[in-house]
Amino acid sequence: MFVAIYWWRVHPGKEDQFRSAWRRGTDLIREKYGSYGSRLHRDADGRFVGYAEWPDEATWRAAFDRKMVYDDPETRAAFVDAIAEVPPDADPIFTMTVTDDLLLRSRHEDGP
Predict the structure, then answer these.
(1) What is the top-level taxon of the source organism (predicted)?
(2) CA distance 74 to 76
(3) N or C end of the chain, less CB within 10 A?
(4) What is the CATH architecture of 2-97?
């Protein structure tokens, strides 16, 4: 398994818009590119951090090279509109190969 970690700063007041677009975009990326999905976190500084799992680096790289474009312009526009800042070139802050996985799997649609 392969992991990519991203971060975004969101315009104040657009957090729900961002989270909704992120959830829909994650579903579309999973369907189109074969990811395993993602988890969204928020750090103490207010930055959103996404942890995305992929079957392998080649699958992630193919999607990343295509900028993970999906066929839902409204979702993409809502996502981009909510974002105030991303890392240079929107590159992930980490990409890693999983060596040991002890996470229990559960799905929480709406988060905590």
Answers:
(1) Bacteria
(2) 5
(3) C
(4) 2-Layer Sandwich (3.30)
